[in-house]
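Same chain as my last thread, 328 residues:
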Amino acid sequence: MSALATTPGQSRPLAYLPVSLFGSVMGLTGLSIAWRLSHARFGVSLAVADGIALLAMLAFAAMTIGYLTKLVCAPDAVRAEFTHPITGSLFGTILISLVLLPIVIAPVSLVTARSLWIVGTLGMLGFAWLTVDRWMGNRQAVVHATPAWNIPVVGLLDVPLAMPSLDLPPLHGLMVLCLAVGIFFAIPLFTTIFARLLFEAPMPDPIQPTLMILVAPFAVGMSTYVTTISGFDLFAECLYALTLFILAVLIGRLRYVARCCPFRVAWWAVSFPLAACSIASIRAASAFPSEVNDAVALFLLAGTTAIIAWLFARTVVGVMRGELRALI
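reply #2:
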């Protein structure tokens, strides 16, 4: 997606590195959480979850080093990416990574997990405020309304997910704030993006995979709502039903993308939404045990694992071949 912005200094070290690649950390972390939940529901080994968590932490470290290098060597490229009406939203992937990673880090180091979560939470609150202020203060072009717009504000839904793992003092008000803002803004943003898809020219092929982001507010919203109220009620069931419906629609749409759009790092945009759907399905199967719910959960977990494994392997191969610039 960073290809949409003109980024000066392309010849400098890692000036081409897109911030959107932090989405790989989100996807790997979400997959690790899904496998951890499947340990409680289906009794699978925790070794899989721990292995994926390690990959997520290594990916975060690599991306942090890489993007800091870009910041030092090509600050104008970072500035252009941040001020762009589409790619600017993707800086939220860094902050969401910081609030998700504590879930998998907490069993190893509670202090580190809490520290990352606090930094990520403060960053998300500030970034959400800044984004809404920017939207309200400047006229926006409908053509810029893409699924990535969900990340800065609806991304607040990710903040409460780690809280049960961190053994923090009661922060119910913060959980409600993030849930309320995330759900409230998800509705007009979904409507705006859907209208853009209906009445404007199709999105460019390289960013078609970001359509999968549209399912994330409902999948993550369900998990956050259940975490906040410590239960599973009718509203949670409605969010899960919406998750499955929108996922079915988007999978039907994205089956054409592979034909028109060769692999790009933008494909990582499908990873976290799919992981969020897997997490939601396992939570639903745990709340309402049945063969059907278990089958849906296992199907989504297996499919998500296969897709993210392919994305990871293809990205590593591309980096080893020196193709990363060409895959942006």
